[in-house]
Specification:
The protein is flat, with a radius of gyration of 39 Å. The chain is 41% helix and 25% strand. Helix 1 (51-71) runs antiparallel to helix 2 (78-98) and helix 8 packs across helix 10. It contains 13 helices and 28 strands.
Length: 652
């Protein structure tokens, strides 16, 4: 199908075994054209069990895919629509499972769905199906990507709550091929043969060819998409027979294109032979062949004889040296001197023998030694090359693993699973630390991955750096005069006080108590202990605020909620970095949030009062010595006193 936005033509085909040979196997494949935008919506489903469960599974997923194909318009954010699709499918499957309409264990199901539109492909899936992407590079070679492995999370989904969790997307280029479907047994069809079929044949022919290689009992379902360039020419149609015959013609070309291929030793040797022995007719070639065979025979014999003699002499000398050292240690020095004399004599004798050799023998010997030297050097070079290649592959595999973990963490963030996202980010960070950085490009790559991890960690931490502006006003004009025990005339010891409904509540950590003081005229009375039930020690409390509930802040960031003198159940989300020196807390009756000041990390942390969830962390270099805070939520303005200055910034 032609893409109206980019000069790509998408060919596609689907197949699902109607009566699979495996018992209780149920297959389904869907391939729906996008008439308005160009492209396809596609999916392959597989399950084992009752037919009724398979029908519910397939009907639910394919219904939503059909809705997407019908409603997707030009200009729409395809990625956003696809994420909405996944949410709808996940909710429908979860509801069917809860209502006992779907009793199939999720471990017995697999599915991969996606959309290809505007030169972009987006997929999601779970289970044991295969998803392979063959990208055609500028050098006319294919790079293979196992998308199924990237979609698979380490803790496999165990319920129907969110089966379609991970989302992968990428660009389509001319020549790219995407296969999703049954995982092929390598004994039935090798990876190289599968790649040849996928890259050489149109999708329909490729599916037919694959089916021919697989046993009849294989439960086979597949969708294949292939992107081709449009050069202003119509794309001719091919019959299945023509396409299959094309496979043999293009096999050699395909082997060149595929990245993972064995060395073409025969081809290389043939080229080398023609360089040294060009074609000069059959008679000449026959003479050259006989002469060459004699030459190489003599060379081989010479190398064998010389090598045997060298090894024999080395062993003999070593054995004699060991005997001499053990029996007559004192004679070792004399023997070594004698050995030097003999070696010199042997060398001179060898040179003399060499000088008396015929010219042809001299040339053969020199050539043999040269070949031996080249052979040894080649072995060393090949070994180094193999070592470097293994190291390069290990590095590339590690980088790919990091990318996969980052993609999975990003998908977890999209679905609100911060715990899993944090776990994958920590694993990615450990892999990045272990990355080799012995070259400039590798240092750059590690820094890029570090930045990506840091960016996602900031998203997990809900960090937002702000740029507050200084207010040319005295702090008391914004925050009012400080309310202290002394200013209220209270005689008890306390570190913070809050006034609410004409009553003063004095926080006294030393006594692990809050004292309530009623107003008596223009002053307050002596007060009485207010906390009746307290499960948490407040000996390290630092601040108090009241909005009907009494909120007490501890130095480690723990917030305690009280009502009528009794502690209520309340806890806040995990904060990263951890709170070590929380100094102030603010809220009022109209706010839905709690604002906490952290001097050590120069930040303002905002929690949801209802459930303790972390809303955001505001940071800024000017947040030195944070003292007081006031929030005008109606105008989205936050005022903060830091050091001797007062700042304001817009809340998010």
């Amino acid at each position: 199908m032609v893409n109206p936005v980019t000069p790509l033509f998408l060919k596609a085909a689907q197949y699902a075994e109607e009566n699979p040979g495996m018992p209780n196997a149920h297959l389904g494949a869907s391939l729906l054209p996008l008439e308005r935008t160009g492209g396809f919506v596609f999916g392959v489903l597989n399950s084992y069990g009752d037919q009724a469960d398979a029908d519910v599974f397939q009907t639910t997923v394919f219904h939503h895919l059909g809705r997407l194909a019908e409603t997707l318009e030009e200009g729409v954010n395809v990625t956003h629509r696809f994420e909405q699709l996944l949410q709808a499918i996940n909710e429908s499957l979860a509801k069917a499972f809860q209502e006992d309409l779907l009793r199939l264990p999720i471990a017995e199901a697999s599915g991969i769905i996606g959309v290809a539109s505007d030169a972009e492909i987006i997929v999601s899936g779970f289970g044991q199906l295969s998803a392979q992407f063959l990208h055609k590079t500028e050098k006319e070679r294919f790079e293979q990507y196992d998308l199924a492995r990237s979609m698979r999370v380490e803790d496999e989904v165990s319920t129907w709550q969110k089966p379609f969790l991970t989302v992968l997307n990428g660009e389509l280029h001319p020549g790219d091929v995407f296969y999703l479907g049954t995982r092929i047994n390598r004994h039935d069809l090798t990876q190289m043969a599968l790649n040849e079929i996928l890259t050489s044949l149109p999708p329909t022919s490729a599916i037919n060819k694959m089916r021919q290689h697989l046993p009849l009992e294989t439960a086979f379902a597949a969708v294949i998409l292939r992107a081709e360039r449009i050069d202003g020419q119509s794309i001719p149609k091919q019959s299945v027979e023509q396409s299959l015959s094309e496979l043999g013609v293009t096999k050699e070309r395909t082997q060149h294109y595929l990245g993972e291929q064995s060395p073409e030793v025969g081809s290389w040797m043939t080229k080398a032979w023609l360089i040294f022995f060009p074609k000069r007719g059959a008679v000449t070639r026959a003479k050259l062949l006989r002469r060459s065979l004699r030459l190489f025979g003599r060379l081989l014999m010479t190398i064998v004889v010389v090598s045997f003699a060298i090894v024999r002499d080395i062993l003999r000398i070593s054995f004699r040296g060991m005997q001499l050292t053990i029996r007559h240690p004192s004679a070792t020095i004399n023997e070594l001197k004698l050995f030097g004399t003999r070696a010199d004599h042997s060398l001179r004798s060898g040179i003399s023998h060499f000088n008396h050799l015929p010219k042809s023998s001299k040339r053969i010997l020199i050539l043999a030694l040269a070949i031996l030297f080249i052979f040894i050097v080649s072995l060393i070079f090949i070994n180094k090359q193999q070592t470097r290649e293994m190291e390069r592959r290990a590095y590339a595999d590690t980088v790919e693993e990091v990318e996969n973990k980052l993609e999975t963490a990003e998908a977890s963030l999209i679905y609100g699973d911060e715990k899993q996202a944090r776990a994958f980010l920590n694993e990615a960070d450990e892999l990045i630390i272990a990355l080799d950085r012995n070259a400039e490009e590798r240092i750059t790559e590690a820094e890029r991955l570090d930045e990506k991890v840091q960016e996602m960690q900031n998203a997990l931490r809900h960090l937002a750096e702000v740029e507050p502006t200084v207010i040319d006003k005295v702090a008391d004009e914004i925050f009012g005069e400080p309310v202290t025990a002394e200013s209220l005339g209270l005689t008890r010891d306390g570190i913070d006080v809050a006034v609410y409904n004409s009553k003063a509540y004095l926080l006294s950590p030393n006594l692990n108590q809050i004292f309530k003081h009623n107003r008596a005229g223009d002053k307050f009375d002596g007060g009485a202990a207010w906390i009746l039930s307290n499960n948490t020690n407040i000996g390290d409390a630092t601040a108090i605020t009241i909005d009907g509930f009494v909120w007490v802040l501890k130095a480690d960031g723990v917030i305690i909620k009280y009502l009528s003198g009794r502690e209520e159940t309340f806890s806040t989300a995990v904060i990263d970095p951890v709170l070590l020196n929380a100094t102030e807390i603010w809220t009022d009756e109209t706010s839905a949030f709690l604002y906490v000041l952290d001097q050590n990390q120069k930040r303002i942390i905002v929690f949801n009062k209802e459930n303790g969830a972390l809303v955001i962390q505001y940071t800024s270099p000017v947040f030195e010595f944070l003292r007081r805070i006031k929030v005008d939520e109606a105008n989205k303005t936050i005022y903060v006193e830091a050091g001797t200055s007062v700042y304001q910034f817009t809340s998010m």
